[in-house]
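User: Structure with zinc ion, tokens only please.
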Amino acid sequence: MDIASLTKVELHCHYDGIVDAPMLRALQAAGETFPVSPEELEAALPVRDFDAFLAWFEVADVGSVDLDPFVPVLRAHVDRLRSQNVQYAEVFTSIPRGDDVVGQMRKYVDRVRERERGETQIEFVMQMGRGGDPGRREAKVETAVALHGAGLVVGIAIAGAEQGLPIEPHTRAMRLAHDAGVPIEIHAGEWCGPESVWDALEYGYPSRIGHGVAILKDKALVRRFRDEQIHIEMCPSSNVATGSVERMSDHPIRRAFDMGLNVGVNTDDPGAFMCSMNSEYRLLVEEFGFTAEELDVLRRNALDARFQPTLRVPIDGTE
Ligand SMILES: [Zn+2]
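Assistant:
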């Protein structure tokens, strides 16, 4: 199977999990700067457990202050997506600090989108963690609503540590987003059991669940996902690298697909996990026997679950 030539859609990738040493070397050769060296990044690899994953982020996450360093990384990322025939991609991003968040965000988004070249549409989803004060969460959601209204983000993603951090205390903020028409993604069932997915469904108004590996442990939950066709963004390499799933053969993506659940495949953090959309596709073919037709069902599932209804580039199977 010629995997590179298959058209693809990716919904689950974090802006601060993309960079890798070859990309940095190419950027440096082109005169771009990034606050971390390729050698420092390489020294943090490979990621084989959760502690190593946190250590990788310690090195690569320079974005808590401002987004500027990530512009060249994201531009290079769009080039890579295009070379893999990824026609539509959403990237989870933090938002800039300081004044004029909308103006800063517009500059960031515009500079990245210059690389679309009419072939790969790139959209941003505002990411936030599960913890923190519910009042502050509501303020963040108000920012997300403003950015969504300005066409700069297409939704909200709740990511990060899951244990001991239920969605329930933040349900007012989540309802605020939902009522304002901002679509919601929640990472759930990655580090916790089915109860965490139930909590996300009950209090978070998600139209997509990230990871969701625990869903298959609960028959009632499987029924709910099958009946409502709630999209699950699965990330097999990520789950094995961080230890969320012990062995690749234990990963539920094939079983979920065969049960009629609505799943897609994603890289999550391609820099940390040394993966790509092409390598995830290869994994699905070699480890789980996916056919080209089945891979296209995954693509179609993701395309239909996207947060941006308006397409700017031609995408297979759309008008
Ligand atoms: Zn993620």
